[in-house]
Amino acid sequence: MSELRYDPVKQIWSVIATDRSRKPDDFLVKRLEFREDEMTVCPFCKGHESKTGTEIYSLKGSNGWATRVVPNRYPAFRIEGELKRTGHGIYDAVNAVGAHEVVIETPRHDINPGNYTEDILYNLFYTFRERVKDLKKDTRFRYIMPFKNYGLLAGSNINHPHSQIIALPVTPNIVKTKLSAALEHYHNKERCLFCDILDQERNENTRIIYENQDFIALCPYASALPFEVSIYPKRHNHCFENTDEGELSGLADITKEVFGRLYKCLENPPLNMVVHTSPPAVKRPSQSGHWASIKEDFHWHIEITPRLSGVAGFESGTGFYINPVAPESAADYLKGAGN
Ligand SMILES: [Zn+2]
Ligand SMILES: [Zn+2]
Fold this sequence. Notes:
HIT family, subunit A; three-stranded mixed sheet
């Protein structure tokens, strides 16, 4: 029989198939094909720097740039202007002040997450860190999120390896829920919710895929979608931007392992990767004292989600997901896919 499982961080229920799990082969989906001519027109390739708009940041590599950060061509949010809150009767609005940046992850065009090198991932996380630090200085922003879309079903139609960073004038509900869950757990127990989850996962050892000195990768207990993976730093740390260079190397290593194993098991799946760091701790008139324990109660993490099918009516109506692969089975497949 299936089982309903509750996620104590996201506070959602998922329906998990615990007996007849589907296999990785059941999820092969349409891939993004390379076209012969695309590198000649790609705005992210080396030599085409003038096609991208003013560079915001770049990391130097041994042979020119290693990463570049440029403005999104079709930004959902714009950096200019004052934040204005308005009300129209029952409806609230905020003008879309924010930032929407694109991180070009490498000068190489023809490489996908499954065969990224550790260098590419180190440079990517280093760039994320520097940009988040900078964007956090802007007190108009309430949430800053680096993320990656790879493949058509994950929302990307450009093959050149790239990620995005978005800075928002409001806190998304998914993030609010996580922050409240973490705060409540800390109030009740004086412990970090995420550290507690990691302790239990280590004891049970049925959903851990891989770990190194500083990080651990696992399939979450109440995974909403098949083959979801979360990566946590072992050291309690609320803030991704506090990650030092040694830890960035560990992060590059574990992400390479996770991407490589998903690639092997699911044949280069479309995927999303999201970095969840603590929000800028700016005091708001309505919430004085809100961030008093953020350093103790929140724990930054990464969520990687292969996009293997669309959202169905049941999901959109209930917010419950039906996951046909138990996270224990997904973890077994991914553990087995290591070298
Ligand atoms: Zn390119
Ligand atoms: Zn913690």
